[in-house]
Request: fold
Amino acid sequence: TTHARRSSPTLMSHAATSPWPAWAEAQLGDLAERRLLRSLRSLTPLPSDNGLSAALVGTTTYQQMLDNTPSTGEVEAATGGMRLTIFAANDYLGLSAHPAVREAAAAAALAHGSGPRGSALVCGYTHAHRELETALAALEQ
Reply:
């Protein structure tokens, strides 16, 4: 005989009485009150003219950043906005927008695939990664 799977009454009543929603709401309220609640901001990466990571943001987005007001979630076209230098990025040297780096990355993806997206400790370390690491280390010598 087949048995239909049903949700356990214990699990359903636990979900209804879970303290998680109230706790999460309180934490978000506390962060907002202390002006620590962060928003994702829409930007357009720019090629670097000085070796630093740069982006263009729309005027509304820029004002929201200055005022530390939450993002509305709207995507604003960054034309005519403000050019920003971004020091908090992993790409602080602006190399990701360099044409030679982009071409090399595209060629490497075609040759080797993009590989697993995760930590090398979890997903492994490829020969291509080792070659890049060795070539970069040679620049320091």
About this structure: Residues 1-5 have pLDDT under 50 and may be disordered. The beta strands are 44-46, 54-57, 82-85. The chain has three domains: 7-37, 44-94, 98-140. DSSP finds six helices and three strands in the chain.
